[in-house]
From TrEMBL:
Originating organism: Photobacterium chitinilyticum
Species classification: Bacteria, Pseudomonadati, Pseudomonadota, Gammaproteobacteria, Vibrionales
Protein name stated in the entry: Phosphate ABC transporter substrate-binding protein
Keyword Signal among record annotations: yes
Signal sequence residues: 1-28
Keywords: Signal
Top-level taxon: Bacteria
Length: 159
């Protein structure tokens, strides 16, 4: 045999390299997932900041008022929007179909109605809806939210 790598050493080295590459790609994809961030926001500066639990209560229809007097109206992105899927997954750990079932049971029992659904997830449409609904609350990727918006809470993947 020649000095240096024999076949057994070569296979071990190759396997180790593959495992190392796989762990780096897993770390990279996990860190990319954590970069997804949503803002729950309004154009009304009188709406107070939200805790994560209060935000969950709003998006589960368990509360419709803030500070006992501000009646909130929610808007939802279209069912086909990838942002809607990500948002509900991050905030409530639910898929769109699970949320549809949840809202259907609340509606049927008379305990709640789902948020109004927009036709598009374009930020212009969201802002237009918020302008027409002074106590409206919406969500969008943080990067799309205008600077003059009142960001009530940010939701980061994995929180």
């Amino acid at each position: 045999m020649r000095k240096g790598l024999n076949i057994k050493s070569f296979i071990s080295l190759a396997a180790g390299t593959v495992l190392l590459m796989l762990s780096f790609s897993t770390l990279a994809s996990n860190s990319n997932e954590k970069d997804v961030e949503f803002a729950v926001f309004s154009l009304n500066n009188e709406i107070p900041s939200l805790s994560k639990s209060k935000t969950r209560m709003l998006y589960k229809g368990r509360t419709k008022k803030l500070n006992g007097s501000i009646k909130i109206v929610l808007v939802d992105l279209p069912e086909t929007s990838i942002h809607r899927e990500d948002f509900y997954n991050m905030l409530l750990g639910k898929s769109i179909s699970q949320m549809n079932g949840y809202w259907a049971s609340l509606s049927f029992s008379g305990k709640g109605i789902p948020p109004e659904e927009l036709d598009s997830d374009d930020i212009k449409d969201i802002l237009e809806w918020l302008n027409q609904n002074p106590n409206g609350i919406a969500y969008a990727p943080v990067s799309a939210v205008p600077e003059n918006a009142n960001i009530l809470i940010t939701i980061l993947q994995g929180e």
